[in-house]
Amino acid sequence: MKKLTLLALCIFLTYSCTNTEEENGSLNAPIIAIDAVDTVFLPKNSVKINATISATGNQTQTILWEKTAGGSADFESDKKDITITNLEEGNYSFTLTVTNNNLSSEESISFSVSDAKVLYNLDFEESNEGFTSSIFGNYTAGKELRNVTEETNHCGTVYMGKKEDFTDWLTYSYEGNNSNFVATNMGTCLGYFTSAIQKEITFTEDFSNGNLGIQFQYYKPGDFSKWGDYNLEVLIFEDDLNYTSEPIITLSPTTNPEGWSLFNENISLAKGTYTLVIRNTNAQTAIDNIIFYKNN
User: Fold this and answer.
1) DSSP 8-state secondary structure symbol assigned to residue 150
2) Phi, psi angle pair for 235, to nearest 5°
């Protein structure tokens, strides 16, 4: 009887210790996610990088950022979120290594620093950047793009806000961007929606030779085609808009299940005024930091 009791006690203690280690996370390597980063355009020479690290319970954690490619850069290597300063033109890569006790994980990020001339920088941080709702959406055309706090109808409408302002839909929640962006709310009701906003853009130089760059961050994390048409499109129109207008440029970024991504492409436009349209069709898509720049 004593031997059986002692054996049972040993089994209980072993199980309890194993459970405690698992609850504290000591048997699991940390999970790291790093927010997408835009190209940095000089003379601005700094960028903030935000990281998310899985909960670690009571275990000891060490953090180390390392620059693996690129020129000069100053940063604090032992902070989760870092601000990198004194950057110069070129391509950079940084790696974050997180160690919980003896288990480590790492995640890397790359970005460029460019001396190209920025012509438009539409980041939605302080304003709606002059966008209004478009005839190509299911929302009333001609309305100013609103902040979410100014809206009363959040069903299939397009507005700017932060990720916590939008309702989750099919588990997607715009994670990976802590700034203001533009998206359609799909989570408060059922239905089919196309949201579209537009803005006039004017170029005083001729870019017919393809030296005009466009860059933006976008969120298109899943394939929602079972709900009907599904897309995120950046469209440029040459003439005044009507329902039969056709864009002269159509950009449709690819799906990326990892979340926020960076789109960058050279385009050709003659000197003149155009209409830029952002159209989200029936999906948990979003756009942010739209930049037009002149390649040197």
Assistant:
1) G
2) -120, 145
Q: What pLDDT does 15 receive?
A: 42
160: closest CA among 215, 122, 216? Answer: 122
Q: Which three-class secondary structure state does DSSP give residue 68?
A: strand
Q: How far apart are CA 121 and CA 114, in angstroms?
A: 14
Rounded Cα distance between 204 and 262, Å, is: 27
Alpha-carbon distances, residue 56 vs 14, 61, 102, 291 (angstroms): 22, 8, 13, 38
What letter would DSSP give residue 9? H
- DSSP per residue over 210-270, as a string? EEEEEEEEEE--S--GGGS--EEEEEEESS---TT---SEEE-PPP-TTS-EEEEEEEEE-
Cβ-in-10-Å burial (0-12, 13-18, 19+) of 164 comes to exposed
Q: Is 16 helix (H, G, I), strand (E, B) or coil?
A: helix
Q: Which residue carries 């003439």 as its tokens?
A: 239
Pairwise pLDDT comparison (129 vs 21), residue with the higher score: 129
Question: Which residues make Cβ contacts (< 8 Å) with residue 71, sequence separation at least 6?
Answer: 87, 88, 89, 90, 92
The string of pLDDT tens digits covering residues 178-229 is 899 998 876 666 666 788 999 999 999 999 999 999 999 999 988 777 777 7
Band (pLDDT 50/70/90 cuts) for residue 282 is confident
Torsion, Cα of 293, 43, 45, 39 (10° steps): 0
Q: Which of 233, 240, 289 is nearest to 260 (CA)?
A: 289
Where are the extended beta strands (E) located within 81-206?
82-84, 90-100, 103-114, 117-122, 132-133, 146-147, 158-161, 181-184, 194-203
3-state class percentages of the chain: helix first, strand second, coil last, to nearest 5: 10, 45, 45
